[in-house]
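From the pipeline queue, job 12 of 40. The input is one protein chain; the requested action is below.

Action: predict structure.
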Amino acid sequence: MFSRIEGKLAELTEEAALVDAGGLCYEIMLPACVREKVANVRPGGPIKLEVFSYMQIDGNRGSAMYVGFTNAIEREFFEALLTVASVGPKTAARAFSKPMAEIARYIDAGDTASLRRLPGIGEQKAKDIVAKLQGKVARFGLIRGEPEKKKEPAPDFVAEAIDVLLQLQYKPQEAEKMAREALGSSGKVTTAEELLTEIYRRQARP
C-alpha cells in the first residue's frame, strides 16, 4: 500500500489512470472531478497523484485498489466520506463527481436533495452523510474556484508552458489557470516561451 505515486501517464480511461512508475504500471481509479483536472496530461507526460489504498475482497480473493487525487486535501475529504457507515470506497469515488468544495457545502447546509443527485447516493445515504458529517466539513468548502467549463483543445505550446510551470512547483490547477488567463489576455501568443513571458508579466504587475 502507498499514499502517493509519481510517474508517467501510460493511459487515461474514463474511470482510471494507468501510471508507469519505476517500471511498474499501476491502475489508479479517478473520481470524475479528479479526472477532469488531469485530462490535459498526455500519454508519456508526468503525473503525480495522492492515493487512497484499500483491499477489495471478492470471495476468497483480495486485491489492492487505489483511488487517486490531485492533492492531499481531496484525499482527506474522501476519507471523511468513508466515515459514513453506508458509504464505501467505490460509492465515495462515484459520488466525488463534483468539486470537493461544492459537495462540502451541500453537507454543511444539510442539502440532501443536492447530495441525492450525486452518482450512487440515494435518499438514505444522503441522510446518513448529513447526519455524520454536517458541521465537520466546513473547511473543505473554503476552497475557492470557478466551475469548470468545457474548453476547446488547447494548442501544443500551452501544454508545454504548463509543464514548465509544474516543474517550477506550481499546482496543476494553478498552472492551468495562469496559462488560460495569459492566453486570453494576449491573442498574439504562439509559442510556449511567449506564453511564459506573458504569465511572468502578469505576475509581476503590482
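Job complete. The two ends are 46 Å apart (CA to CA).
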